[in-house]
Amino acid sequence: MNHKELPEVNIGILGGTGLYQIDGLRQAREISLETPFGQPSDSYIVGELEGVTVAFLSRHGRGHRYMPSEVNYRANFFGFKLLGVKRVISVNSVGSLKEEIKPRDIVLADQFVDRTRRFNTFFGQGLVAHISLAHPVCPVLSKHIYDLAKELGLSVHPAGTYVCIEGPAFSTIAESKVYRQFGADVIGMTAATEARLAREAEMCYVTMNLVTDYDVWKSQEETVTVELVLANLQANISNAKNIIKKTLASINRLEAEACDCQEGLKNTIITAPQARDPQTVKNLWPLIGKYL
Length: 292
Ligand SMILES: [Zn+2]
Hints:
- By secondary structure, the chain is of the alpha/beta class.
- It has one domain (3-257): Nucleoside phosphorylase domain (Rossmann fold, 3-Layer(aba) Sandwich).
- The chain has helices spanning 73-82, 139-151, 173-182, 191-200, 216-219, 226-249, 278-283, 285-288, and strands at 11-15, 26-31, 44-49, 52-58, 87-96, 106-108, 111-114, 156-157, 161-164, 186-188, 204-214.
- Helix 2 crosses helix 6 (226-249).
- The radius of gyration is 19 Å and the shape is globular.
- The protein starts with 10 loop residues before the first strand and ends with a helix.
- Zinc ion binds at residues 138, 140-141, 204, 259, 261.
- Zinc ion is lined by residues 138, 140-141, 204, 259, 261.
């Protein structure tokens, strides 16, 4: 598809485990995109929800085909960029590392400890940029979602540290205990990679961490059944859908509030103009063109 024919999308929604589609999308259509980084996890489902044009993408592909290490994160975010997405709401299932963060709680993680070894930048190949990741999540979007989740009567935590592991296996007990000593709150396999790429793509990013269970540090002490975890997952997805709807219905309120996310690449490209690889510059033009 010619990029000029693409619809203008405001919000991207990334569905994780258990969230493979969004109900109630009006005038929905599927858009398949190719990017310089290959194909996204699936087609984008673009449609209108609560009066806002959104693009939904299933992170693991519909049917859950890609494990966390196999997800093409760069293509997923590059595709969002081609669609004009300015804000991404990501839904990520996590395990809790703290007693007080209970199954079915929602944590709006604002910090990450990234233990992965996967591609997590659009740069390289003759073009270097160093973004700031001190505050990896959009404070404005995060606060907005926190307030709405509270209004819905949900148990939501406004901040937290997310340990991102490569997976697909869960942690050993020793690892889980080490992460608790870091002071981390939740553990998952995807959000840290996404936050980095969202910043490079100059998008506001927020990750709704849906707690399915306690990580292995505690679950060894308790009887955790698969049925219970699945019931928690179902309840979480239902909560997430409600929050997303409410967020979209009030998204206009955010336009007046300032954040720096959409200038995340300003003054970060360090490679001298004459030293830049022309093909890489061409590939990344949708991201960097406004600064060159
Ligand atoms: Zn922002």
